[in-house]
Amino acid sequence: MSEQNESLNLTSIQNKLEQAKGSGYWRSLDELASLDGFKEFLHREFPRQASEWIDDEGRRNFLKIMGASLALAGLSACTKQPTEYILPYVETPEHLIPGKPMFYATAFPVSGIANPVLVESHEFRPTKVEGNPEHPASMGAADVPTQASILGLYDPDRLQSVSYIGEIRSYSSFLENFIGVLEKQKAKNGAGLRILTETVTSPSLGAQLQEVLKAYPGAKWYQWEPTGHGRRMGAQLAFGQFLNTTYKFDQAEVVLSIDANFLGNGPGGVKYARDFISKRAVRGGVRTQSRFYAVETTPTATGVKADHRHPIQPSHVDGFVRNLAAVLAGGSPSADAPVPAEAAKFFGALVKDLQAAKGKSIVIAGEDQSPEVHAVVHYINQLLGNNGTTVVLAASLEQKPTDQMADLKALIADLNAGSVDALLILGGNPVYNTPAELNLRGAIQKAKLRIRLGMHEDETAEVCQWNVPEAHAFEQWNDVPAYDGTISIAQPLIAPLYGGKSLHDILAAFTETPEKSSYQVVREYWQAKHAGADFDAWWRHSIHDGFVKGSAAAPVNATAKLIAPVAGAAAAAGGYEISFHSDPYILDGRYSNNAWLQELPRPISRLTWDNAVIVSPKTAKELGVSDEERVSIDFNGHSAWGSIWQVPGQPDGSIALTLGYGRRRIGRAGNGAGFDAYPLRAAATPYFARGAKVTKLGETFRLAAVQHHFAMEGRNPVHAGTLDEFKNDPYFSQRQSELPPKGLTILPETFKYEGYAWGMAIDLTSCMGCHACVVACQAENNIAVVGKEQVLNTREMHWLRIDRYYRNEVENPQTYFQPVACSHCEDAPCEVVCPVAATETDAEGLNNMVYNRCVGTRYCSNNCPYKVRRFNFLLYTDWETESLKLQKNPDVTVRSRGVMEKCTYCVQRINYAKITAEKQDRKVQDGEIVPACAATCPTQAIMFGDLNDPKSRVSEWKRESTNYSLLAELNTRPRTTYLADIRNPNPDVPSTEARGTEKNS
Amino acid sequence: MSIVIGVIVLGAAGGALFELIADSRYATRQGDAREQPIPFSHMHHVGSMGIDCRYCHTSVDNSDWAVIPPTKTCMNCHSQIWVGSSTLEPVRESYRTNQSIKWTKVYDLPDYVYFNHSIHVKKGVGCETCHGRIDQQALTWQEPSLQMRWCLDCHRNPAPNLRPADKITTMGYVPSEPQEVLGARLMKENHVQKLDTCWTCHR
Predict the structure, then answer these.
(1) In chain A, whose CA is at the least distance from the CA of B58?
(2) Do A77 and B27 touch (CB under 8 A)?
């Protein structure tokens, strides 16, 4: 859309908003400006090359090829099916019934924090990850990186063999060599030995490292990860000790987020989301909601769910929290750093709300905030009496909590001094993600021997002599704590595909028994901890359950002190502010070769395959740039080139940069996606920096955003209101769309659904746009990845999309999320236009899509008002790469080119439950069928069940007064309906009125 | 104009030919006894020895697959009898080397068909109904055409093919009462439905 953006004028947009009629909802700035190009884009559902021949030559060639294939079509009928073979077991493993999947509890650790999971295994081939329903941190749900972890296991670009300077070697030759090195080191007490790991939380690994340091007292162990410093060091600053903070959102009446994307992201995100939404959902007679304020340096999926959200420049955050602390302590705002004007609007109301909810509120600072901000927030929670009630402090979960920036600097100093004989880099990718000016890349090469354990042949592997493939989390034994310290003893699901080794395996090489397996290491550690005759039973139980019961870290009491402001921090430097944020999906870059994650639209920016230079529309105007225009950002002697992307709600004058992109060496999905923002992230300013220079490069670089794709233009898809509106008029949402007269249909009589009638309800109040459902659907239903070029052509294949709608002011819009998949209409518009009856509604109300009948006319998609059908324009499914075949769900057909596909309500799960029930001569019970999307949803926003059972939960949801059908006026009788988004703004905040619904009549 | 007529005529002829070939026993492999690495005889094991189907096909009543038995099941007997038979050498080799025996699939449904043995057994469809007189097959052949219309014939009208639960594995079964009466009764008793929607089998 870049060519149209020149005419995008902020003033005209604002004028349009003033006169807004109709819904008042908009998806993007282009839509708001109603640019001609945008309209054309919408009217052509598949805008690019979808309905036209690029050149006459191409058309002629096509006819020639088609002629040949038509002739061959007859021949194919003469051939028999190719002969297939059955290879039964020699001896069937215990408990295995071929054809029936088994589920094993294990854990997927991210930055040392376990995400408890159950992995579905088909004849010992892991295919799908679900949350562990019994684990307190998961309750059956899983976040985006955890859902996508299964693809990481089968990543075809994983490091597949041990190598020495590019030559393939065996692991035993590595061991032999390494043990030789260790023997030499023994003589000098290990003084030339350095070990660099990521954050270590595994107790057995910590014990192993301590053993190593005992045997080699001169050796040093350093830790480095590019994110998480603020949280770790913030506690240290405030309490004088490293503490782990957890939150009880189910007990919080007032929540203030300082740039924290805590819903479904980061440690405990899944649990927090469930707890938080339990105080927000307005269902089942509940008529109350907690209140949520957010102050953000860039819009996040969490922040936009707030009742009051305020964009704030990164440099103002410190002042904001200090003012809040001062006012809550009974003082007045400091004159040095006054509350920013926009925040002043709700500052008073916020303080009042917080004070009224002492001991029942939470103030939470984000992962990308500085230690100082975290420390002040700890102090604020203490002032509010939250520590010990809603905020729980416990001992750090890390084995050796440390200032990792200091660790890194110490390592580089050692390297530069030439005192390192052997450097072991166990996991992580420090060459890529450490501050550029420290020049780790150069320093590392001063170590005489460099050994790397890693999953990929990446930037760090490039400068190491020995490269050992690292085992995936599902290929190794491990013991890791969840966010609250509950230990999971994680078991492998499959033998290492490429002979990968875990950290435990490598560290065992330091001992007398170098080939000791991770299983032995972990088991021996816990046997020592849990001595006694019942150890075997305890061990089996813990592995079976996926966690050790009652192992959560015990709360501690600690007193926070108010730290003094850092001198000189407030000094202005001119230029623009840049802030650094880890990506919500690929995080610090560790999952950048995961194609599912790359193609998953970001909740707010809706970008896939790239990061961007995120600016507010006003700042873009100031810079004279429009979307997709490439700029150079210069700071601290380094520069990064990226495309501009305007995001309403981004604070003016600041630029948000996403880390984790611009990978040079990782693999087919990650290489070349986006730009690398790490060089701009100086050691002194890792959270935000001031004084960045932005230069127009005079070229455009296209970004694959999906925000206009499959738009339901000009209707009123989201129904929303405030809690007060709801209390005054529980049926307010019914009045936000036209309803057709009951019984209106052109069909002679309405079909009676007598058996099961499957249906779904989605609670928009609970949906927080995290996209875990989308990636769960992709894993369950063998949905293909299409790549950036095809996304630009509106050809992404996700069966489920989460639309993001804005409303009201451009500077800080209200934002709504709406998951949309096939609604399984009873009177389905797709069905009547299909010339070959490839899509038909069945007796249970499911809209059956039959791939083998489909001839690819795409009439159905054209006639679908919800725009939920996806067409395989090309052969998107990878039929070639062997490792990817292993991930496929054997219960779902793998689609080929030329067929339409769409959400099936996970019919494979419906059939499985129906068959199970039939075999037991009973009906399917409520809750027995959970589609993949609903199963993984951290907030349980999706409910599925039998509408003919009045007691089913989905029936209960559909009886809620807020229940509405999407595009009800079309009378398609969709089986998926929505519960309106209800928010609880503070009536004392001046802007509330403008955020109400009266524009919506 | 003549080209158009030509195309139509050719198309019609092609269609007819297509139908003929696609329905032929050659294309469907109906009645085709497939060669196997070991000439396993159901005639001998079922017909002469009287071994129940479920001794080997253990998960026929609780999984999609009836299951080709593991080598271990063969060895239960063949470690005692016919231990020197050269015909059985591949079985012993498989057991020795821990390598699967590579059987040729006889009933090979397309990959987009999801068939579940257990529910058919539960609802009263006998083994014989689809697999024929397995006790008379030396080398196993494909009894029905396995075309969709064959499946649908029964899915639309299951009653003629139902039998009591204790007769599921019986070969040469003769109903003890008129099938019309029995079928109607079993339809009711077993809650048998006429399932002919696409997603019953395809997904």
Answers:
(1) A97
(2) yes
